[in-house]
Amino acid sequence: MSFTSVYDVDRITVLSLAVVATLVYPLWILIYRFFFSPLSKIPGPKLTRISGLLEANALKQQRRTQWVGELFTQNPGAVAVRTGPSSVSFNHPEAVKAIYGHGKGAEEFGKSTWYDSFSTTGESLFSTRSKKRHAVKRRMVAHGFSAQTLHLFEPHMDQTIARFMKKMDEFASSRQFFDIYFWFELFTMDLMGELALGDNFGVIEASKPARYSTLVEQSQRFGNLSGILPFGKSNVRVLSWVPLPYVQRLWGARLEYLEFARKALEKRYQDNRRQVGPGGKPRQDIMQRFIEAQDPETGQRMGFAELCAETSSLMVAGASTGSVTMNWMTYYLCKNPEVKSRIIDDLEMLFPDNLDGTKPIPFTELNKLHLLEYAEMESLRLHPPIGYAMPRDTPLAGAIICGVFVPGGVAVGVPAAVIGRNPTVYSEPDKWDPRRWSDATAEMKTCFLGFGHGTRQCIGRSIATQFIMKMIATLLLRYDIELENPALKLGTKEFTILKPDQEYKILLRPRKQAAN
Predict the structure, then answer these.
(1) Rounded CA gap, 193 and 157, in Å?
(2) DSSP 3-state assignment of 393?
(3) For strand 492-495 and strand 479-483, is the pairing parallel, antiparallel, or unpaired?
(4) Which of these ranges, 222-236, 274-288, 337-351, 431-445, has the smallest mean pLDDT?
(5) Element (H, E) at 186
(6) Tell me, what DSSP letter sits at residue 282?
């Protein structure tokens, strides 16, 4: 046999083996995932063992959180369900502590590649996966979110609430039913413009939302879709190439939103020197805190790209979550008049010189009203703005969570909307009862994920609670609030943020007139 013929035979053999391997390897992966992987023992639809299609479809149908909840309902007693080839959701208090909690073991769970889809011009506090970088960023700006500095932001809140109440007075005078959630969204847009960018958008006076609000929602949906893909940091780029009209519309919105944030931040920089407060000091708001923030070890400040990423994140976190929480509080207070009356009585005792709600309500006094804060917490328990699981990757060696072994590199998490209605933690879990928080158990507090949990929970929690409580307190003192349809039962629909599934309207009457 010639040298050439031997070479040809060997080449054919190698090619044949390559073809066989190409066919056999995917088949082996399928067999392994179906029958031999430790994840195969976790209940869930069979398709989730090999594909994220079901989760992607639920996301597109605006019901991903509901879909995960249904998986637990279909598997009673299960502490975990399979939601994808490498993703598992848990529904147990111990899972919250194991995945999100403090301590040496908890440190082994890192943020999953899902967060890379939300890094834009740079890493924000929300999107950074590096624990070291997150710790540095948090130390840099933590003082700007502390309770001690809330009073510096309060004048901006009071001014925005006053502008909002002028519009509410118009509705009250005309005795017109209107969509209160729509107006809460306008309020939070203008407020976050004030706090994050140094100026409001004028949407309250214009009675219509800013363009950016639509872009935020579409940009977030793009991030969620790309986060399902298995390409890590390349997820965003890969999804941007998908030629489907729906995907391209979301991608275009993401690009437009980032350009909006860039221009808004540039304007904030240009106006920075002109915005001087009492004593000649710069305007005190959240963005000023970010601009001035320094790494305590190196003295380094955030660059423009990083500040732009933080701006994008702030606008999403503050505006979307605050408005929907005030919406649910208003709805439930109207459905529970005895709780509403009790809060009004407490407000009148605290502020006897402001019975008509026309004066700014100082938060230093308002935060003594525990029932109002409990009403906020109870609304967030039933309707957390982000209902699905915030994913963390298991350590390389794997982890045992609630007695379930999960291999390394698997995205695990606890959906806030599911654990918030866990009947083993909360009695009558579907009932809105803020008084349950007056003697809350340790497990109840652990499973309350309205603001996240552990070291990565929302750094702006105190600010959100401040403006939410001030807004609701002002409305309750100023008006008698009625639902157009007292028998209304609201459900949820997922627009990234869990929102009401239908529009509803309320009627406002000035309380002095209502009493007469």
Answers:
(1) 11
(2) strand
(3) unpaired
(4) 274-288
(5) helix 180-197
(6) B
CA nearest to 450, candidates 382, 371, 391:
382
In this structure, are residues 498 and 383 in contact, taking their beta carbons and an 8 Å threshold? yes
- Overall residue count recorded for the chain in this entry: 516
Handedness of CA 439, 103, 310, 87 (dihedral sign): negative
- The single residue listed with the structure tokens 């510096």 is 152
Helix/strand/coil for 442: helix
Dihedral sign computed on CA atoms, order 491, 319, 451, 404: positive
Q: How far apart are the C-alpha atoms of 516 and 504, rounded to whole Å?
A: 27
Residue 139 is inside which H or E element, if any? helix 131-141
CB 394 within 8 A of CB 408: yes
Task: Render pLDDT for 170-204 as a digit per residue (tens, 0 to 9).
Answer: 999 999 999 999 999 999 989 988 887 778 889 99
Residue 478 in any domain: the answer is: yes
Give residue 514's pLDDT. Answer: 46
The predicted structure's pLDDT at residue 271: 65
Q: What are phi and psi of 177, to 5 degrees?
A: -75, 140
Q: Is 458 annotated as a binding residue?
A: yes
Domain of residue 472: give its range: 113-396+449-515
The tally of domains found in the chain comes to: 1
**Residue 119 domain-assigned (yes or no):** yes
Is residue 234, in this structure, part of any structural domain at all?
yes
Q: Which of 103, 71, 112 is nearest to 395 (CA)?
A: 112
- CA-to-CA distance for 228 and 222, rounded, in angstroms? 10
Distance CA 379, CA 267 (A): 36
Q: How many CB atoms are located within 10 Å of the residue 427 CB?
A: 10
Inside any domain, residue 27: no
206 close to 513: Cβ distance less than 8 angstroms: no
* 121/247 Cα distance (integer angstroms): 20
Orientation angle between helical segments 370-382 and 461-478, nearest 10 degrees: 110
Indicate the helix (H) or strand (E) that contains 499.
strand 497-500
CB 332 within 8 A of CB 375: yes
Identity (one letter) of the amino acid at 415?
P
Tell me which residue of 70, 51, 67 sits closest to 59, measured CA to CA. Answer: 67
- pTM given for the model: 0.87
E strand or H helix at 81: strand 80-84
Q: Alpha helices of 272-402 — where are they, by DSSP H?
A: 286-292, 304-335, 337-350, 363-366, 370-382
Q: How far apart are CA 491 and CA 500, in angstroms?
A: 6
Look up residue 112 and give its DSSP letter: P
CA-based max dimension of the chain: 111
Which pair of structure tokens corresponds to residue 499? Answer: 């929102």
Strands (DSSP E) found in 217-325: none
pLDDT for res 182: 94
Domain with residue 159: its CATH number is 1.10.630.10
